Amino acid sequence: MPSRLGPTLTGGTPLRGLEEEDVLGHILPLFRSSPDLIVPPGDDAAVLATEERTIVTTDTVVLGRDWLDAWSSAADIGHKVVAQNLADVAAMGGRPTGVLITLVTDPMVSLEWVVDLARGIAEACDRADVAVLGGDLSSAPAGVVMISVTALGNLDGEPVLRSGARPGDRVAVCGSLGLAAAGLHLLTHDQAERHTTAVARQRRPSPPLGAGPQAAAAGASAMLDVSDGLLRDGGRIARASGVVLELDPVALAADVAEVAGAVGEETAWDCVLAGGEEHSLLATFPDDLPTGWRGIGSVRAPRPAEAPGVLVEGRTARQTGWDHFGGGGAGTDAVGDDPRQG
Amino acid sequence: MPSRLGPTLTGGTPLRGLEEEDVLGHILPLFRSSPDLIVPPGDDAAVLATEERTIVTTDTVVLGRDWLDAWSSAADIGHKVVAQNLADVAAMGGRPTGVLITLVTDPMVSLEWVVDLARGIAEACDRADVAVLGGDLSSAPAGVVMISVTALGNLDGEPVLRSGARPGDRVAVCGSLGLAAAGLHLLTHDQAERHTTAVARQRRPSPPLGAGPQAAAAGASAMLDVSDGLLRDGGRIARASGVVLELDPVALAADVAEVAGAVGEETAWDCVLAGGEEHSLLATFPDDLPTGWRGIGSVRAPRPAEAPGVLVEGRTARQTGWDHFGGGGAGTDAVGDDPRQG
Predict the structure, then answer these.
(1) Which of chain A's residues have a Cβ under 8 Å away from the Cβ of B91?
(2) SS in 3 state form for B43-81?
(3) CATH number attached to the domain at B170-341
(4) Which one of A17, A62, A138 has the shortest CB-CB distance to B62?
(5) B139 touching A, CB under 8 A?
């Protein structure tokens, strides 16, 4: 990880020397209120109108590990960290209502960067009609910038867990697959111009938030958002539910084709099967799929001595993904045949 | 700030090389559920039973800035960061129901330290009957350890804001004043043995959580928790309400006496008037004080050309406190006479 900040982060007035209230004075006016917000941030705490069940989740991004200064603007990062938390709320079947944002940063980061970050946060919140409920602004050692988001949402009815998939259910996706990973691949290889949509998706995920409550209403039996890759996240549903997900590569061919021209056929399959940060929704349905969802496979019971898991064209697919302490890249559960050679 | 971790943090098995799920396997069993917790952490998000109004707040502590390895065990820090967030919920008049915890850490920190941290978190949660609703565990550059907590609470009735103090109200406190600051002073001067209660309060604040809803029910017109010092926090009520708080030094004499033997008379006044991290509750009441609260002054309207603020024995008191970016120690609003010389 970098111990020095790049020029994107430091161009302008450094936070060092500014009062916290001055910084907040530049940021807070960017955040819109919402009908759910009874007491806005600024007192000891905010007060949010809630119903019987509230969904809560949190996620953190760290400079140098989750994003690189050279690849993402502050607004991109603000947008992304909010969007991925809202996706978790949607993946339970809920409607996001609010977020809390914590920025812990090297005080050599500029006020301008922080204001741009806040703009990205505000944009992602406005798109989802979500209020900023609070936050914290703290200094960190040199080179450190991290942003932590907690999201809240309202849940009508029952939550859609990972554990409810049953044999006979259909496996379906709402949203794209592999675009964000292809974008990351292109940024890594300094080829961003080869697929600007993929690069944009990497920088600013666009989770189909409305599809979460929609799927819940349509009787989805299990759901999550694709944050660590179709195989790894599908494996989570499979293990939690004690089932096997059989994915149909034909149903994924269009996703592969979408990025194959830019990254090559082999990498395209990697992106679609194992690419993270897409934040599309993956669910299982006992009945017909709701509008906007597309079938990519089916659920069956494990055969004798077969472990729950994900198969592609009947074979165990490579499991790749990201583990924060075990090291990036290939996961430790990388086993089995490559379905593309099947 | 330190770029190397002390032995307290690194003694044992480093996180580096462990899978995130292995680490969580040691931590999650320490956390108790609660009747409010409908879906525990482990899915995309947790689901909490809520009522019409939910209080939310967040706060972060960073190694080297908010605590020193040599002064606080991991369990102390876990306890403290939870307690200070729960105090914010209580200070709105609410009952805390849940917390989310994010740990971003140098992977050379040991599993044992993290488990001890989780024990302190669990103890503070259990004392308040609060559930852990989720969290995040991420790696950070060398030397960085930070813990972020978001707390939720249920609010019956109206929130108690900072802006409701009115001329004629009484100013009151529930809990101690100056103990945590005296403890910090003793730790700084390597004299912890001179007042072990004060040092313990510095390490583990003990906010009177039940006094928050109690004060709300008794008609408190304004309230907050004393996190940055009586003068600075009192000033927040004064400015938000457009009033002057007149504090009576006689009413504070017992607080001063409590620590004067250990830190000296002058420092004791500093601790009581300006000491942070106490997390006692400061409120204003138009009517009689509820049980457990003690009067320390009164509220009046500003005189012509007088700004809202806090007076001690009729004089502007020194305003000290902590500002994250402006540098620690004396704040920039340090003006006026020293009331101890008045």
Answers:
(1) 44-45
(2) ECCEEEECCCEEEEEEEEEEECCCECCCCCCHHHHHHHH
(3) 3.90.650.10
(4) A138
(5) yes
